[in-house]
Amino acid sequence: MTRTVGRLFADTLEELGVQHVFGVVGDALNPLTDAIRSSKSLSWVGCRHEEAAAFAAGAQSQLTDTIGVCMGTVGPGAVHLLNGLYDAAKSGTPVLAVAGQVPLSEVGTDYFQEVDNDLLFKDVAVFRATVTSPEQLPGLLEVAVRTAIGRRGVAVLSVPGDIGDQELPADRPVRLSVARSANRPDDPALDEAAQLINDGGDVTLLVGRGARESREDVLTLAERLGAPMVLTLKAKEGFEGENPYQVGQTGLIGNPAAAWAMDHADTLLLLGTDFPYRDWYPEGKKVVQVDRVAEHIGRRVPVDVGLAADVGPTVRGLLERIEARKDHGHLESARKKFTQWREGQRRLGEPGHDHKLLGRVRSALDNRSHLVRPEALAAAIDSAAADDAVFTSDTGMATVWLSRFVEMRGGRRLLGSYNLGSMANAMPQAIGAQLLDRDRQVVAFCGDGGLSMLLGDLMTIRSERLPVKLVVFDNQRLGMVKLEQEQAGLPEFGTVLDNPDFAAVAQALGITGIRVTRAEDLADGVRHAFEEPGPVLLDVLTNPDEIAVPAKPTVQQGWGFAIAKVRENLRSTGS
């Protein structure tokens, strides 16, 4: 029995275990979406914007460690996929994108809506191809899927509008077997790394996402070395909860204890991380780096020993060679500083903080002090959310507050655009996460700027009846940009957002909307949001003048901030 191109495509996705295909329907893809319609196990999720579809597919891929799938029709539909696909590519997660194309006979004629997809996706995709005949499809699908999974990236197949409903000349099955393997360095390389570590004085670990599957091995290594463990944002999930060695994050969103642990180490051991911010790597340290991607070795900081291998087998090999340390003074000092910093953060998140002495002084200086502190909102969400909740966060200050006040304890998961740094990712990623398990709590930390970019896909949440909790940090600002301007000594400009009442917008769309405008109403608002069984948008007016002090604030930043505030005040008074 022969099958059409569309039918073979749908059958292949079923074999892969794909549950959802995200996209916007269109003429070039009609034969494929019709095959999905008649599928027993695939569900079509019609989004309002293809960018949201790509973000949702990437989220599912990251949560399941399988391939995510999205679609965009010819021309603009394919173009709209790009930002979400770039996020998947930079997150190192496999996504298959199917892009429509003009009829094959019209390719190259500047036909209506024609876009050169193979050129368009050249930079973002590890594999891209245009199907030019039905008999090509089985082989191209195999290569696309294997390449996306094997290289953990994006594969794009373009399907001309007159190809999808054609029959295959033979019912050639698609073979999708992909065997995964773990790599271990050879013994001489492990010996060299272990010798450097044994002779290297105080050690600090910088642990990233690539180590998450090897938690117990990494904890054993930290204990043996008496080493504090600095976590990248993506390593919060997997390493933050019940970890007596971790000291939080470094960098602009980090804390002084993590920066101290890096600065006061003699040797840095980088495990599964490509932490990009060179200014936050101290100079003059011995460095050992373990990463399965060879090109990651040494591209951020000079490395003395680089081990291009998987973290788990490598750490187990090192444990056979590394001597146990009796002196844990370096770890104890870092943990003490971390505990002190966390206590200060805890006080910032207390509902009554602004009624204390410091708060009263601030109130005299800041007429917005009646608004909710973003720290208090994040802390309240941390307390209310389930221990297996999935969190997503928009790039910017929403991520800062999540990183400092939400603990990835228990089975919590975390998603964000932490490599691409895109706005507008939190809500569509929450859509993808919630569709995987409607009974699991999904909480999106949304910036007001990010949410408003893809506001239309609130309707996807409604139409799919997804019980997502959207928490909007509504400071009516592009908050991170505001902070960057002021630290550079520039007055705030172009960051003010004329927002609607997001809760009222949600209500108009059939979603429960809750608006909190004063600190004393925060507890009730959060409780109501989490008790509501369906989707909720919690719109909280937060103070735009709250700042996140970086791990190592500089005198230059302080002066810049002071100068910016003077300029802003002069401008506001017309002087």
Question: Can you describe what's shown?
Answer:
The chain is of the alpha/beta class and 575 residues long. 40% of the residues lie in helices and 15% in strands. It has 23 helices and 17 strands. The protein has helices at 5-16, 30-37, 50-64, 76-80, 82-91, 117-120, 137-150, 187-198, 215-225, 236-239, 256-263, 311-319, 329-348, 357-365, 374-384, 397-405, 426-436, 448-453, 458-463, 479-487, 502-508, 522-531, 555-573, and strands at 20-23, 43-46, 68-72, 95-101, 125-130, 154-160, 203-207, 229-231, 267-271, 286-290, 305-307, 390-393, 413-416, 442-447, 469-474, 512-516, 536-541. It has a six-stranded parallel β-sheet with strand order 2-1-3-4-6-5, with helices on both faces. The protein has a six-stranded parallel β-sheet with strand order 13-12-14-15-17-16, with helices on both faces. A five-stranded parallel β-sheet has the order 8-7-9-10-11, sandwiched between helices. Helix 9 links the parallel strand 7 and strand 8 (229-231). Helix 1 crosses helix 2 and helix 20 packs across helix 23. It is globular and about 70 Å long. The protein starts with a helix and ends with a helix.
